[in-house]
Amino acid sequence: MISSPDLPTRLETARLYLRPYRAGDGPMYLMVGLRNRAHLARYEAENPLTTLTDTVEAENLIRDFIAEWQKGSAYFWGVFDRQTDDFVAQIYIGLTDRALPAYELGYVVDCEHEGRGYVTEAARAALRFVFEHLRAHRVSLHCDETNVRSARVAERCGFTLEGRIREDKRAPDGGFTDTLCYGLLRREFAAFTSQSSQNSPPPAP
Ligand SMILES: CC(C)(COP(=O)(O)OP(=O)(O)OC[C@H]1O[C@@H](n2cnc3c(N)ncnc32)[C@H](O)[C@@H]1OP(=O)(O)O)[C@@H](O)C(=O)NCCC(=O)NCCS
Questions:
Q1: What is the position in ligand 1's atom list of the atom closest to the CA of 121?
Q2: Structural domains of the chain, ranges and CATH numbers in brackets
């Protein structure tokens, strides 16, 4: 297991920086949750961010994130604008298989920052973290088939559509929707990053 002191606590991209949440972030996180409730209702209804009602609850959630980071079971990154320090997005990396190792990726963008490429930019930095620092062999990502914006982020990050789980969720109209299953392997990420010549490929484990 990779111990948390060996992990970076800041990732930088052209426009953004990513940092783990820290004690004292509760009030900021509550404001993020309150203004994004409607925005996240369709595809992130189970995200605890959407049900926060006060700062104590928000601070407790932040403390859970810190504990998860320390255990190596999940890494929640807050994504911020480098110039303004505004909260822009959140990236989630969850351990799914310690032996492989494999992780899953999740993301939400702040409603005032959607459609500007921030999530793709931050997700690519988070993927470098997963492959280089967590030594992942594989990363998976699931999204609803109607969540076109999310699928586009996955594809822009080099994920391959591997399959679909049929009719496993209710749609707002009472019908059913499928879940799209994406995967990204270590060697594919290395090829993807060297092709786009933005980053050096991750070293072999
Ligand atoms: C899914 C979600 C995170 C995608 O966010 P997003 O803002 O569309 O994704 P990005 O930040 O990568 O932005 C990409 C868009 O910005 C546009 N863009 C604008 N300026 C840009 C720039 N300077 N650089 C790159 N892209 C730019 C791109 O063209 C792209 O638009 P397109 O998808 O219409 O082609 C967001 O819709 C969301 O939070 N939804 C609710 C929660 C959710 O569904 N989470 C995922 C669950 S699986």
A1: 12
A2: 9-195 (3.40.630.30)
Ligand 1 neighbours, Cβ below 6 Å, are 40, 43-44, 107-109, 114-120, 143, 147, 149-150, 152-153
Separation of CA 143 and ligand 1 centre (Å) = 14
**Pair of tokens at residue 147:** 């969540």
List per-block mean pLDDT (blocks of 10 residues) for the chain, which spans 205 residues.
Answer: 80 98 98 98 96 98 98 98 98 98 98 98 98 98 98 98 97 97 96 68 40
Question: Which residues 6+ apart lie within 8 Å of 93 measured at CB?
Answer: 74, 75, 76, 77, 103, 104, 105, 106, 126, 129, 130, 134
pTM, to two decimals: 0.94
pLDDT in tens, 48-97: 999 999 999 999 999 999 999 999 999 999 999 999 999 999 999 999 99
How many angstroms separate the alpha carbon of residue 115 from the centre of ligand 1? 4
